[in-house]
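step=encode ok
step=design start
structure_in=
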């Protein structure tokens, strides 16, 4: 079995144009990442599949694309101004700050070996200093900004730390425009920003990332049933992009570790090379957000149901981080094997997420009749399957290796026989097997969504 390390994933991602460090030519900026052509296609495929499954194929879902910057009052009402913080400690020697729950603590013990409460020491991972005191401060993770030309308290706002906020503030708009029947959901895909104290593990903990979130509004008595349905449907989405249920572990989050708005949360964890960590989450947010926004804005955010009267619906929230899903997909796909006595590295992507669905080659690039026919096949396929790549560089073996490494499911070679009977060689990424396929059947074969 392939040992998949972060070094291997990060190196392939950079080398083959998936993900680059942000502001790289200036030495980088910790927690920010740029997507290259293949990473962008992979990311768009994941987002499009999610949107199709959870919004377009359903009749009970409403999509929104809200502004990233909202009124400060909205973040006060949601509890983020007061409570969206992580505990930090500062090293007395080098002044570097660390997340208090990430530092390595040296406990002081009494003579019976028991830990003395409040006597923790911690070691600075930057300069190695022994810090005597464990003084924790709360650090709010929202990025602050100013709206307009004055920089004072009244113009302060924040980059959103979760896309959910933009959904709740549009609840009334959706009710007024579409008159949906309960239960119904609102969905959004977009950027979120968190000034993480310690961004780490490639795109896993970034300061700028994307979320795909649903707020599914239900009657209070229905929340448990809806929670179970979303539990299954969320895993169904992961399976559809190649991440099997068996590789995901559910962690029931304890009340003290839950976010301030949640009465129940499951973290769906994945075994990343750096440990078992949260991939996505499912939370029961009660009627917390709509109630708080109603009280703070003075605008009624109730749902009117015949026979029942007016009430604030409760909410189930499946929340997916795009970057963590990309990382899980890359890790799941990363494979090393030997094919035809040659060692190779390839990405065994589910074709639905593969950034390139097929590559088209002329067998020889100095034979104009082969190149012309290959161009014809390529152009015709590209009309309906845009994620097609042309490659005529180097010999066929090298082209196969290059396509394997970026996870292209099939390679199509136009050779002399094509000119006679309009068939091509289709070579499968995983097995290396080749078969002859008629040009007229190619589109059907490579079309996956
Ligand atoms: N609206 C609920 C919410 O934001 P969360 O657990 O804080 O809950 C949801 O975040 C998901 O967003 C996480 O499961 C993770 O996939 C992703 N996420 C959170 N912080 C992240 C970060 N710093 N970098 C990358 N992804 C992150």
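sequence_out=
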């Amino acid at each position: 079995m392939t040992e998949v390390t972060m070094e291997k994933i990060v190196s392939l991602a950079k080398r083959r144009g998936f993900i680059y460090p942000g502001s790289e030519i200036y030495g980088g900026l910790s927690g920010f990442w740029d997507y290259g052509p293949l990473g962008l296609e992979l990311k768009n495929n994941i987002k499009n599949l999610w949107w199709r499954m959870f919004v377009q194929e359903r009749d009970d879902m409403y999509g929104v694309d809200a502004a990233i910057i909202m009124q400060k009052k909205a973040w006060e009402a949601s509890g983020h101004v007061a409570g969206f913080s992580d505990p930090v400690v500062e090293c007395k020697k080098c002044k570097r700050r660390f997340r208090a729950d990430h530092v390595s603590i040296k406990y002081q013990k009494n003579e019976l070996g028991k830990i003395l409460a409040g006597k923790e020491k911690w070691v600075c991972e930057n300069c190695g200093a022994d810090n005597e005191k464990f003084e924790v401060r709360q650090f709010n993770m929202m990025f602050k900004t100013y709206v307009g030309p004055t920089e004072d308290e009244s113009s302060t706002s924040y980059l959103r730390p979760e896309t959910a906020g933009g959904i709740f503030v549009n609840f009334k708009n959706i009710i007024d425009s579409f008159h949906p029947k309960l239960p119904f959901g609102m969905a959004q895909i977009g950027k979120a920003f968190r000034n993480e104290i310690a961004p780490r593990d490639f795109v896993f903990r970034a300061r700028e990332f994307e979320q795909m979130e649903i707020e599914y509004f239900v009657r209070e008595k229905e929340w448990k049933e809806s929670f179970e349905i979303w539990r299954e449907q969320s895993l169904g989405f992961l399976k559809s992009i190649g991440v099997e249920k068996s590789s995901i572990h559910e962690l029931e989050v304890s009340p003290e570790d839950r976010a301030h708005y949640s009465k129940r949360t499951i973290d769906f964890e994945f075994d990343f090379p750096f440990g078992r960590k949260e991939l996505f989450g499912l939370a029961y947010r009660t009627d917390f957000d709509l109630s708080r926004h109603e009280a703070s804005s003075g605008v009624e955010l109730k749902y009117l149901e015949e026979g029942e009267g007016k009430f604030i619906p409760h909410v189930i929230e499946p929340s997916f981080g795009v970057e963590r899903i990309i990382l899980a997909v890359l890790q799941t796909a990363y494979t090393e094997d030997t094919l035809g006595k040659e060692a190779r590295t390839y990405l065994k992507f589910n074709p639905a997420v593969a950034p390139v669905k097929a590559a088209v080659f002329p067998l020889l690039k100095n034979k104009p009749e082969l190149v012309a026919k290959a161009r014809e096949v390529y152009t015709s396929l590209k009309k309906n399957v845009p994620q097609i790549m042309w490659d005529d560089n180097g010999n066929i073996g090298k082209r196969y290796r290059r396509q394997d490494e970026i996870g292209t499911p099939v390679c199509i070679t136009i050779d002399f026989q094509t000119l006679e009977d309009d068939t091509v060689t289709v070579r499968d990424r995983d097995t290396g097997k080749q078969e002859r396929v008629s040009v007229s059947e190619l589109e059907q074969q490579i079309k996956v969504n």
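step=design ok
step=annotate ok -> DSSP finds 13 helices and 27 strands in the chain.
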